[in-house]
Amino acid sequence: MATRTDQLVDDYLARVARHAAALPHERRDELLAELTEHIATARAETETPDAEATVRTILDRLGDPAEIVAQETVTPVRVDAAPDRGWYRPVTLACLLLGGLAVPVVGWVAGVVLLWGGGRWSTRQRILGTVCTPGGFGTAFLIAALWFLFADGSDSGVCRTGTQCTASSGSLGAATIALLVALACAAASVVAVAVLARSGRRG
Amino acid sequence: MSGMVEGELDQTTQLRRGLLPYCVLALLRDDECYGVRIVRELSAVDGMMTSEGTVYPLLSRLRRQGLVQTRWAESPAGPPRRYYRITEAGRAALDAFVLQWRRTRDAVDHFLTP
């Protein structure tokens, strides 16, 4: 038996296995199987399958184990396998804008996750979408609701005593600010979502 | 980790690595093929292949993306082989790439040709 050449092959595969320790074990096993098959097939197709020179050549051509394993985890140049899923962008924008209304905070967060996970936007657009839609309409709605409660409570509370309603005008001022903030939030969200909707299309 | 290895490669190698998946898909256009033969066809063309083993991660990725499918078959000489065959999605991706490639190639040639 050609034990020397088998040793060469075993050593090579062992090196691959070592470098591949960080891969998911299924893929590691699969890669080792593929390289084993490659070596065996390549040997079988030569006239001297057991010659040391034959095996050394095959292993040299296979290349450095570290380089092979490195290819497993490199971020690939994206092969456009399928067109953009039609629902992805509308759902993302809906969550950003209205998600906070349906499920407070979490609904909007879902929109942010979708925003960063796909939809073909640039990083800059994604930052815009995250920063300018704080909670979307959910936040605006919350602020407006607080304004409603705030303005109601202080109004009836202070003016009933009959003194000058200075305090209530003060709280009305704060409430107005809150309302303006709510409107600003809503407006910023709408503008940001509009920008996202129009851009990032396949050019 | 892999980022460091990629950084050490020269630009030409990186370029070819990006184009290699499409060359593989094109090889499979007309018929299925097994690993060693895919490697051999790629190596036969000057400069497309440095490390033959790197084809296997590439093939694995194409499989994960649904662009190729595989089957095992007994071979006349040696152990069972894995055959790779292009899928419809693979054909679509290849067709889309061919258009892009021609546009890009023509555009670059426009500037490079004196």
Question: What are the key terms here?
Answer:
heterodimer; A: 203 residues; mainly alpha; 0% strand; B: 114 residues; alpha+beta; Arc Repressor Mutant, subunit A; three-stranded antiparallel sheet; 12% strand
What do these coordinates show?
The complex is a heterodimer of chains A (203) and B (114). Chain A folds into two domains: 3-73, no CATH class; 88-198, no CATH class. Chain A is built from nine helices and no strands. Chain A has helices at 3-19, 25-44, 52-62, 65-73, 88-102, 106-117, 123-131, 136-159, 166-198. The radius of gyration of chain A is 32 Å and the shape is rod-shaped. The two termini of chain A are 61 Å apart. Chain B starts with a helix and ends with a helix. Chain B has five helices and three strands, in the order ααβααββα. Chain B is of the alpha+beta class. Chain B has a single domain, classed as Arc Repressor Mutant, subunit A, CATH 1.10.10.10. The longest helix of chain B is centred in the last third of the chain and has 25 residues, at 88-112. The relative contact order of chain B is 0.14. The radius of gyration of chain B is 16 Å and the shape is globular. Chain B has a three-stranded antiparallel sheet. Chain B has helices at residues 2-8, 11-27, 35-44, 55-64, 88-112; strands at 33-34, 68-73, 81-86. Chain A binds chain B through residues 22, 27, 30-31, 34-35, 37-38, 40-45, 61-74, 76-77, 79-82, and chain B through 1-2, 5-6, 17-18, 21-22, 34-36, 39, 43, 50-54, 56-62, 65-67, 75, 77-82, 89, 92-93, 96-97.
List the helices and strands and how they pair.
The complex is a heterodimer of chains A (203) and B (114).
Chain A: H1 3-19, H2 25-44, H3 52-62, H4 65-73, H5 88-102, H6 106-117, H7 123-131, H8 136-159, H9 166-198
Helix pairs in contact in A: 1-2, 1-3, 1-4, 2-3, 5-6, 5-8, 5-9, 7-9, 8-9
Chain B: H1 2-8, H2 11-27, E1 33-34, H3 35-44, H4 55-64, E2 68-73, E3 81-86, H5 88-112
Antiparallel strand pairs in B: 1-3, 2-3
